[in-house]
Amino acid sequence: MSTSKDLYQIGEIPPRGEVPRRMFAQVIRPDRFGEPEKAFQIEEIETPRPGPGEALVLVMAAGINYNNVWAAKGIPVDVTQVHARFGEPDDFHVGGSDASGVVWQVGPGVENVAVGDHVVIHCGQWDPDDPFVASGGDPGFADSYRIWGYESNWGSFAQFTKVQAHQCLPKAPHLTWEQAAAPTLVGATAYRMLMGWPPHVVQEGDVVLVWGGAGGLGSMAIQIVRELGGKAVAVVSSDDKAQFCMRLGAVGTINRKDFSHWGMPPHWTDTEGYAAWFAGAKTFGKALWDAVGEKQSPRIVFEHPGEDTIPTSIFVCATGGMVVICAGTTGYNAVADLRYLWMRQKRFQGSHFANDEQSAGFNQMVVDGKIDPCLARTFSFDEVGDSHQLMSENRHPEGNMAVLVSAPTEGLTELPG
Ligand code: NAP
């Protein structure tokens, strides 16, 4: 198709289906890894083209996630080295693992979406020819599984993003572009954590302890638990965040600032030190029962802070319950007093994003209006670095954040014009 222009300005929408040769993107390069506010810079780059099974999506708005804080810092991995392994350009990274937008071009063999469809994008990618996937295995366990806009290049912090067509899900018509862009990564991750590890799926009346209840993951987890008839107790660090969690349907909250026993406990042979840690963990457990209103321990503990909180999570989890974890934001050393793990027969389960069915399951809850995307703040495209900086310093608002890309203003639910 011939193009009338080689490049469009941010917020300018090309004629339907027309793909300019070049586009603007927020780019990270290894030589500026560091604080997100400096690592992200707007550059003009070549527009990718969809291959077999792929779609090119005009990004209307993009969601902000913690993974590109990591990408900006180059910790714990240099993501451009991962791109190299997959044969993608490896001298830069275009991040962004959440988007709302319009399908602009499709590659050969794509049947689930067509040009003009309004979509949101889940961030799970895999090789469809991966023998494990082809034989019906959960793609989440496949060697080729990776996160679009983190381990892959061509994420949503650009005018166009290249995705595998199966990642596209219908956009909830009642949401604005920026609202729709906000919740899919954290929401589908929470959905798998709470629904994907039977028999530990949330059941009516279950207590679920949700760390970081006012964060991206936590705000989605509280709402999913509420919809399933469970009782979410949210851990937070301020009264404002506690109120936010109660509004989402938590039955109670705990302020982690009231405790000081965080991090790796002293060795169990250090009798005095260990006893002090244990007293802190027990007081936390008591605060949890107070929040529930009865002596009911969590059948599921929703974990992601990691090193600071895991010892407490494993201790307070109910006998026969599960601690499910998808991150180690505060550190990677998980120290557990194994006596509580084996004697009380608890499960410690890793979890990572979601598959197509789980992403679609979460998206349906959004489309049905059961989940509020909790969009707290919308940024302009040139503020991608600033929004990640806020997140890196835990100074971001409750819930989720998004940036406008091709959506010219906030509040639009359709393509303008
Ligand atoms: P977020 O919006 O920043 O929320 C994290 C929350 O953690 C914060 O709101 C904060 O709440 C709490 N927190 C901060 N420091 C803490 C500490 N020392 N102890 C306990 N809680 C603490 O981030 P998110 O989007 O929820 O993501 C959280 C982590 O999960 C990130 O590392 C992210 O990369 C990861 N993640 C992984 C996957 C996956 O598929 N594997 C998917 C999504 C996210 P308070 O200050 O109120 O306690």
Overview of the molecule:
With about 425 residues, the protein is of the alpha/beta class. The protein has two domains: about 20-185 and about 375-405, Quinone Oxidoreductase, Chain A, domain 1 (Alpha-Beta Complex), CATH 3.90.180; about 185-350, 3-Layer(aba) Sandwich (Rossmann fold). About 30% of the residues lie in helices and about 20% in strands. It is built from 13 helices and 18 strands. The chain has helices spanning about 35-40, 65-75, 80-85, 130-135, 175-180, 185-195, 215-225, 240-250, 270-290, 310-315, 340-345, 355-365, 385-390; strands at about 20-30, 40-45, 55-65, 95, 100-105, 120, 125, 145, 160-165, 170, 205-210, 230-235, 250-255, 300-305, 320-325, 345-350, 375-380, 400-405. The strands form four sheets. Strands 3, 5, 6, 9, 10, 17 and 18 form a seven-stranded mixed β-sheet that branches. A six-stranded parallel β-sheet has the order 13-12-11-14-15-16, sandwiched between helices. α6 packs across α7, α6 (about 185-195) packs across α12 and α9 crosses α10 (about 310-315). The longest helix has 22 residues, at about 270-290. The protein is globular. The two termini are about 20 Å apart. The chain binds NADP nicotinamide-adenine-dinucleotide phosphate. NADP nicotinamide-adenine-dinucleotide phosphate binds near residues 189 and 211.
